[in-house]
Amino acid sequence: MYFALAFAIFPLFTFAQDHEQEHKSLQEAEEEFNATEMIMHHIGDSHGWHFFGEGDSSVTLPLPVILYTDNGLVTFMSSEFHHDTEGHHVVEKDGMRFVNLHEDIYRLDAGAEAVEFDAEHHPLNASKPWDLSITKNVAAMFLTVILMLLFFGVGLARHHKKNEHAPKGFNNVLETLVIFVRDEIAIPQIGEKKYMKFMPFLLTIFFFIWITNLLGLLPGAANVTGNIAVTVSLGLFTMLIMIFNGNKDFYKHTFWMPGIPTWVKPILAVVEGLGLLIKPAALMIRLFANITAGHIIILSLIGLIFILESAGVAGISVPFALFITVLELLVAFLQAFIFTILSALFIGMAVEEHEHH
What we know:
Elements: H1 2-18, H2 23-31, H3 35-43, E1 48-52, E2 59-62, E3 64-69, E4 72-77, E5 91-93, E6 96-101, E7 104-108, E8 126-127, E9 130-131, H4 136-162, H5 170-190, H6 195-215, H7 228-245, H8 248-255, H9 265-307, H10 314-351
Antiparallel strand pairs: 1-2, 3-4, 3-9, 5-6, 6-7, 7-8
C-alpha cells in the first residue's frame, strides 16, 4: 500500500525537477487548468476506467455500456466514444445515435447529426435512455466482491475445513478482524442471544466498506464509498433489516410509548417514526462525506501546484498530500467500523427484549 502511494506521488517530484526546462509548454496548460473540473473528474463515476494519461495517449480500461431504449437493449464498449465526454463523438448503434456528455449518455433525436445546447448548456435534441452500464464504480464493487470471495470463501473457510489449528499469515489477520467484529461490535450492541443472526450482514458491510476504501487510495482507483448512491444502498439495507426484525416492544416504544401522557404520544410517534429514516440517513451521509472530503483535500493540495503555477509549492503541498493519504488508511478502517457499529446499534435497539413488570 505504501509503495503504491509513493508510486502515485513520485511523478509530482519529477514534475518539480523538470518544471524550469518545460516552463513554456507547461504554462499554456496551466492557464487552462480548472481545479474544480479536475477534482470532480477524479471523484466522480465514469463509463471507462481511466488510469493515467490524456486523450488518445491515455490508459483506460473500456467498460460495457448497456442502454435500454424504446427500441430495446443496446450494448457497446465505452471505448467507442474515444475518450470524448463533450458530446462531439457520436456512436451509431441499431440505427440510433448516442453521445457522452460528462459521463451522462444521451440518445440523439431522429435526424440529428450532433447535439445542440441551450443557453444553460442543456441538450435540446437528445434524451436520456435507461443507463444500466457497468461503470467504474460498479466494476470496482465487483472487484471488491471477488476479493472477499477469495479471502473468505477460498482462503479462510477452506483453511478451517481442512485444519483445526489457528490460521497463519493473512488468514490470521482476517480471522482477527472477524473476531473483532463479533466481540467488539455484534455482541455488545445486539446481545449474545441474537447476534449470530446478523453476523453475516455485519461482516459483509464491514469488509466491503473497508476494502473499497483501501482500493480507493490506489492510483487510478474508483471512489466507491464516495458515491452517494452506494452509501444510500448500504443505509437502506440497515434500515430494512432493522424494520423487518423489529419486535413488538420496539414498535410499541416507537409509535405508542408507554408511561407518558396520551396527548403526547402522537407527537412522539411522528418524531420516532422519522427517526427510523434519520438513522440510516446519518449512516449514509457520514460515510459519503468523510470519504469524499478526504479525496477532495488530497486533490486540492496537489492542484495548488498548478493553480499557483509554482514548482516550489510542491515542497509543501506534496508532503501534506502524502500525510493526508496515509491518514486516509486510518479513515478507511474507521469509517467501516463506525458504519458497522452504528448498524449493529440500530439493529440491537429493534430486537432488544424489554422487561415487563
